[in-house]
């Protein structure tokens, strides 16, 4: 019913107005329209997207020899990143845009693969539930949590040396990265003092308790993410030395984590407060400002699992969004320091990112740039795959 007005406008419009009016009711998911060197053929659900060479491609005469473009191309559906990396190593696929760091060690020495390496625009963090009635609503406990973990060493072990420790919501990829952001410092005695100052008493089992409730919680990790799981398990053992009990549990993103995380309060308002903390990932967008911490899928200051942040954090974040020049934006990074101090999140690491291509992939115009996050994406219409 909601689409009837759109259909009516489409049928009664003419020329370009008809096309514009039809956009809202076109099914781009199953029948996309594009202008590239390939045209859509069909989508095989759960398997692949089949494309065919488009002989009338506008760039054919100037950028690429159409005869050298393969007659067909497939975008294959592979649900596991590790499985995709294995397929790349076996030359079953020829391009993997993002190789997860835990799979990188399995392919880094493969002679059939060429690898691009660059600083990733994402990072990982543990988000706490700040809502009233939850233990980590108390800043002292959140700060104590971070003081119980040998942060840099734990990151190094969990990632096999492929993670760069971070301490706020801006990874080294970003122009706004501040190397002077305070670091997490291992201080078990100081952590215990904070916990006890908040009214908790150490029990006979070595775990703190207050009002008959133990300082115990479950830390959720997305299934199939071995590095995140490794960090969580290493942290669990260290936290126990501080009298904090943590159970690590893996969960499927769609069936377990999303309903619990409360990323969309309007949709999941019936399940508030169903977990204390979870390992998550954040990402900075490339546009409108490359690596802009205020334009990305970062931890949001007023929503999601953490609940509501202090007002001064939100206001500082808004102030930081006003300047447009990177140098000015960099100077308004107080919100990043405040987020570190208020500790609604315990930040983990940023990956050294990798893109993998078969050695058979080349360009007709110039060598592939294997040192850039862009890796000639602007020039994919000139990519070719040599026959085996």
Q: Could you characterize what this model shows?
A:
The protein is α+β, with helices and mostly antiparallel strands and 388 residues long. The protein is built from 12 helices and 17 strands. It has helices at 4-12, 15-22, 81-89, 101-104, 139-147, 151-159, 188-197, 226-241, 253-261, 311-320, 326-331, 334-342, and strands spanning 38-44, 48-53, 72-76, 95-99, 113-119, 122-128, 163-165, 201-202, 208-210, 213-214, 216-222, 245-251, 277-283, 345-347, 349-358, 361-363, 383-385. α5 runs antiparallel to α7, α6 (151-159) runs antiparallel to α8 (226-241) and α10 runs antiparallel to α12 (334-342). The longest helix has 16 residues, at 226-241. It is elongated. Mean pLDDT is 77; it is low at 263-273, 285-304 and 311-332.
Return the structural class.
Answer: alpha+beta
Strand order of the largest sheet: 12-11-13-6-14
What low-confidence regions span 5 or more consecutive residues with pLDDT below 50?
263-273, 285-304, 311-332
Mean of all residue-level pLDDT scores: 77
Gyration radius over CA: 25 Å
Number of strand elements = 17
Compute the number of helices. Answer: 12
